[in-house]
Every structure is written in C-alpha cells, then in structure tokens.
Design goal:
Length: about 675
C-alpha cells in the first residue's frame, strides 16, 4: 500500500510534520533558555566569589565553554528548523532498494534534513543528500544513487512535487517526468523577486550534474543567457558545504563577482539554503592587492565606457595585445631574461680587510634560483656570511650584514614593478603598447601583467581559499587567469557566457580559460529559463547562438517603437512606466547603453521612485531601475525598456554586445524605443 496515497492524506501528513517541527522548536527554545540561565549562574558565581582557587576557575571555564558550544549547536538546530517550518519539503520519491527485505520508503525532500529522534526516522531528507539526487535525475522506474558505501540500485515507484507556502499546501503534482514542467512553468512565470532566489524545487537534470560534480578541480560552465549559471554555481557551493562539511567552511570560499550590486543581488541564495554568505571580491581588488594598492588604475567600468564612447584604435590595440597568449609567452621569456641579465654583481667591500668578490655573489644569485628573484637577497646574504664564518672564522656585525644585503639588492635592476614592466615593452621593441594616463594612472589591461611580473619576481601571498568561484568569466583575459591560477591553486568553479562579453577586445572563451589555467572541465548549459520564447527569439536576432534552447514559455512579442524626436520618445517611456505601475509586475529595468546615458535618462524623466544604479552603487533595489547595460549584467527584470536604439547609438560590435545583454535581462516584457529615422541594424 502506498504511504499517504491521497491528497487528503498528504495534507494531513504535512500538518503532522509541522506540529512535530513546532514541538521540537519549542523544546529547543527551552533548552536554549536553560543554557543561558546556566551561563548567567556561572557568571554570578564568579563575580561573587573572587577568591576561588585556580583549579576551580579552570574547571568552571571548561564547563562554561562546554555549555556555550552546546548552546550554539542548539541555536543552530533551531534556526534550521525555523527555516523549514513554512516549507518543510517540496518533493517526494518512493524508493525501493533492490535488495531482499527492503521495503518501499517514502523520501520527502526539503531544504534541510529533519530527523525525528523519537521515531528514529528521517522524515525529511536534505536536497543535497545522496538519496535526494534521484529526485532530480530520474523518472519512474529503475534508478540508483551513490551512497558513501557505494552504488545503491532500486526502483522509483512514485514521484510527487508539492508547492507549500506558509505551512499550507497550495497544490501537489504527481509526476512521471524528471522535474515536472508545470511547477517549473509556474516558477518561471512568477515575478522577479527583490533578490535572486533559490531553485531547489525545480533544479533540472543537466543543472544537477553540475551542482553535484565532485571530480573536477576546475569546472568551467559555459551557459547561454538565463540558463541558471549563477543560480547553479551558488547551489553548487551549498552542495559542497554540505558534502564536505568537515573540511570546507563558508569562510574558505571566495566569489569573484563583477560588482557590488551583483554581489548584493545574489546574497540571499546561500542563506535561503541554510548556509552562511561567503566572502566576495572583484578582479580589480585581487590584482591591486598583489601590488599593495600602490598604483592608480582605470577601472574595468571606465575601460568599457571609454570603448563605448570614444573607441580609439590604439587603445583597442593595446587591450587586444595584452589579451593574447603570445603576450603571456613574451612575458615568460622576459622573466627568463631578467633572471639572466638583471643581476649585475659587484665586489662588496665589507670591512677594511674583507671584500666579497663579484663572481661569488653572482654564483649565489643563481644557486638560489628556486626562490623568486627578490626573495633571494636575504638567503644569499645568510649563505655567504655562513660560508665566511666556516672558512675564515669571520663573524660580521648586524650593520655589516644589513649593508651586504642592501648592496646585493642594489645589484638587481628589477626591484620596481613598474620600471620592469616598462622595460618589457622596450625589450619587445613595442614601447607604444604601454601608455600611462593622466596622474600616473595605469590602464586596466596593465594591472594583471604587472601583477604577473610581481608574482614572478617576488612570489604570491598565501591565502586559505579552498574553492574559488568566478562569475562573468568571459570578461577576464588570459593573463588575468594566469594571475588567478598563481594566487589560487585551489578548486574552482568558473562560469559565464562568451556571448555576453562587455570586454570584446580582452575576453576569454571557455577553451581559452582552460588553456590559461592548463586544466579544467567544460560543461555547457544550453536551455534558457529566464525569458519568454518571444524575447529569446528577439535576442537571437542580435546575436545568434545555435545551441540555445528556450524553455517553452510564451508572452507578448517585444515592441520596437519609433518616434519623431526625443521629446516624443521620452513621453512614450513615461507612458510605459505608468502602464508598468498599473500592472502586477514588480520590477522594471530601463537599460541604456552607457552610464552617462542612463544618468541623462534619470534627469529627463523626472520621475520619483526611480533608482539609478551606477558603477558606484552597492545595493540592488527592486522597482524601477535605470542603469547601463554593463551594470545590468547578471540581473533580471519582469519588464525591460531599452531606449535610444537608433543606428548611431548602437552600431559597433561592442554596442551589439550591450544590446544583447540588455535584451536578455527581460523575463516577461520587452520594449525598445528610438527617435529619428533609422533603428540599429542589429534587430
Ligand atoms: N531549474 C530552474 N528552475 C527555476 N528557475 C530557474 C531554473 N534555472 C534557472 N532559473 C531561473 O532563470 C533565471 C536565470 O538564472 P541565472 O541568473 O542564474 O542565469 P544565468 O545563466 O546566470 O544568466 P545570465 O548569464 O543571463 O545573467 C533566474 O530567474 C532563475 O531563477
């Protein structure tokens, strides 16, 4: 007989589970109170008995720490239970192991495990548990999962999905398919949340494969726009934190994200999945840190903006040159050249009677070639002085030792990163490839090569990162990946979409990243979930991707509206905003090509309740947002308006990228407007 066969039985079972959960929560509350009271009693005792002997103090300290640890774990458990009381589970499979004496077990799947210690049964399985993988991977019939003890084979005889909100079952679906389309459709048709949400209930098979991939040290995910790359990467982090809970913690993970707004936008997913948020940084921050933040540089935003507004061919050429693999080989050859030619040894007159000969010093520089060059001076000094002590029984004063080290350092012509970098271009016979901007400001593309040289000369600093996640991978160049590999030799998940580059002259494809890192498995996601078929078809006209497969969800066709002049265009945009405000949509993105156009739009529209997202913003806001295509990357909106799509504003290849990024942000409705005669040739 099937356990909880009917919907009525399921509904009553849900209420039983919720009552059970509530009961345990109230027990844990009592237990937390006990621990707090005990700790307070200890404190009072210590306060009132200042002359107690050290033994007693020590034993009390142990008890306090013990209570504290237990109290913390109870609070932790309470937090987890409180999280699941509203939505205890979302799926179920009935599984019978192919083994004598094994009966059918109902496996209810939710965000967290719920083990009932009274009945000694697991009432809810964590979605990341090995057995839960079958929910995402199999239909009815034969199935297996990998348990810690090996493969477990069996049969799935029932599969159900539930939509439970605030402890009430809205509906349940009996499904033979992997993860039923109806629920997925309902999720996708819903409105954009204020932040990215978790997708545990509807993870698709190909996505599950990426989340649970434990083998690849470096996993590179190339996924089309809206294929769930970012969501999947975050679920993967949650999976790794669960599966390797004894060896990897939230603080051991680092996310390199494109900007603060994006970091804020995704910040809810891990807490929703019951994990702590993980540290986050940017590529610029990482590179600048290597160079001790010594240099001013053009930010990536400024570079993209310059390419969009005044694309000077020399600038483009410099970026392209520094993004090639040839450039990396040349840098490597130059590092060898430094090794062979930058150290010019001289005799050092250490005391009135003792001179250290140049040849001896030169020899030591090469002897210590296992150290980065600038780290050899100390080792060379120590070694030479030790030798002198052994051979001539000669000991030096601290001042003489420091003098020798200083002299040795002076003999090396590569102590200044920037000078070495300039030398490189001279050595290459390409001095025009390096240009410093006003106020000794470096171009963004120079930051990574200088950091690369710095690490070769000085070594990289150690860090404790065990898993690195890089989003928007296409925007980073091979030399940036080289630096990343040197700094973070740990496991990596790298994700992005070559079609969405805002850095077309310095971008990387999945294969280029694999080549730069010398390792990596590439996995693809081709199904697009974000937008309706009509919006996806429209975006495909701007940039075709034959691998892209839209999920079957329909809506209005995108509108392209022409106006006689800017005034009319603005007035139409205001009307569109009013229509949006009267609709049930929750977010509207007005996406311009550049930040200054976006700022101009804010001024011209003169509407309150509009949020302007600039490259300096740090928080994502729901409602009406005006921003640039670059900032909008990674975000999504129920409705998108793209103004000024005339042929003058969108004509170059980088403009095409911006237009593609902007259109693919729309989930349900898309309108493009322009004034004048001609619209962009890209649509
Ligand atoms: N399996 C799924 N179930 C429900 N929603 C999904 C699923 N996969 C993706 N989505 C939804 O699709 C949208 C796009 O996801 P996400 O932003 O992670 O994609 P992306 O590939 O990183 O996008 P882009 O590169 O275009 O920024 C989100 O709204 C996400 O919730």
């Amino acid at each position: 007989m099937v356990f909880n066969q009917t919907e009525k039985q399921e509904r009553s079972y849900l209420q039983q589970i919720i009552s059970r959960l509530k009961k345990i929560i109230s027990h844990t509350d009592a237990s937390v109170k006990d621990h707090v009271d005990t700790l307070a009693a200890y404190k009072d005792y210590l306060w009132n008995n200042k002359d107690i002997d050290p033994h007693e103090i020590r034993s009390m300290r142990e008890s306090i720490l013990n209570h504290f640890a237990i109290g913390e774990s109870v609070i932790d458990k309470r937090k987890r239970l409180a999280k699941i009381v509203d939505i205890p589970y979302f799926g179920r499979i009935d599984f019978q192991e192919k083994n004598e004496n094994c009966s059918v077990i109902p496996v209810y799947i939710g965000i967290h495990t719920f083990h009932d210690s009274e009945s000694r049964t697991t009432l809810i399985y964590d979605w990341r548990a090995p057995i839960s993988s079958m929910f995402y991977d199999y239909e009815l019939g034969e199935a297996f999962y990998q348990s810690p003890w090996g493969e477990v084979k069996g049969d799935i005889s029932l599969k159900r999905q539930y939509r439970i909100r605030d402890g009430k079952m809205e509906f349940m679906i009996e499904s033979a398919l992997t993860v039923h389309d109806d629920i997925l459709q309902k999720e996708l048709s819903s409105n954009a949340d204020d932040k990215m949400k978790n997708i545990v209930a509807t993870i698709q098979r190909e996505q599950n494969l990426i989340i649970r991939n434990e083998e690849s040290r470096t996993l590179i995910i190339q996924g089309v726009a809206g294929s769930g790359k970012t969501s999947i990467a975050l679920h993967r982090i949650a999976y790794l934190l669960y599966t390797f809970k004894d060896s990897i913690f939230s603080k051991d993970i680092l996310i390199i994200s494109p900007n603060k707004v994006f970091a804020d936008y995704i910040s809810n997913v891990l807490p929703e999945l019951g994990e702590e948020t993980v540290p986050e940084t940017s590529m610029e921050q990482v590179l600048s840190e290597v160079l001790d933040h010594k240099y001013k540089y053009l930010s990536f935003f400024e570079q993209v903006n310059e390419l969009l507004t005044k694309p000077v061919p020399d600038f483009i050429e410099r970026i392209q040159y520094k993004s090639s693999f040839d450039f990396i080989s040349s840098l490597d050859r130059f590092i060898l050249h430094i090794e062979n030619h930058y150290f010019k040894a001289e005799d050092v007159k250490l005391t009135q009677y003792i001179t250290v000969p140049a040849e001896f010093i030169e020899e030591q520089f090469h002897r210590f070639n296992r150290y980065p060059m600038r780290q050899r001076f100390e080792a060379m000094t120590e070694y030479m002085l030790d030798m002198m002590k052994v051979q001539y029984a000669f000991t030096v004063t601290t001042a003489e030792r420091n003098f020798l080290k200083k002299e040795i350092k002076r003999m090396f012509a590569g102590n200044n990163d920037l000078q070495v970098y300039k030398d490189f271009f001279e050595w290459m016979g390409k001095p025009e490839m390096f240009k410093m901007r006003k106020n000794r400001t470096l171009e963004y593309a120079d930051l990574a090569p200088i950091a690369y040289l710095h690490i070769a000369l000085e070594g990289g600093t150690k860090n404790s990162v065990k898993h690195l996640l890089i989003d928007e991978m296409q925007d980073y160049s091979p030399i940036q990946y080289k630096v990343i590999q040197k700094l973070f030799p740990c496991r990596k998940t790298i994700l992005g979409d070559a079609s969405q580059s805002v850095n077309p002259y310095g971008s990387s494809t999945a294969d280029m990243i694999r080549k730069a890192l010398v390792t990596g498995e590439v996995m693809k996601l081709c199904k697009s979930y974000r937008s309706t078929c009509e919006i996806t078809d429209f975006a495909q006209k701007i940039r075709i991707n034959t691998e892209l497969e839209p999920v079957a969800r329909h809506g209005e066709k995108p509108h392209v509206l022409q106006f006689n002049n800017e005034k009319e265009e603005l007035s139409a945009i205001k009307d569109l905003i009013l229509t949006y405000q009267a609709s049930f949509y929750k977010s509207l993105g007005i996406i311009c090509k550049t930040e200054s156009q976006a700022r101009g739009m804010v001024d011209k529209l003169q509407i309150t309740d509009i949020h302007f997202l600039s490259s300096q913003s740090s928080a994502f806001v729901q409602g009406i947002v005006i921003t640039s295509a670059h900032m909008a990357k990674g975000l999504e909106f129920d409705e998108v308006i793209i103004p000024q799509i005339d042929d003058k504003n969108y004509h170059s290849e980088i403009d095409r990228s911006m237009l593609y990024v902007a259109t693919t942000r729309a989930m349900h409705r898309l309108t493009l407007t322009y004034s004048g005669l001609k619209r962009t040739p890209f649509i």
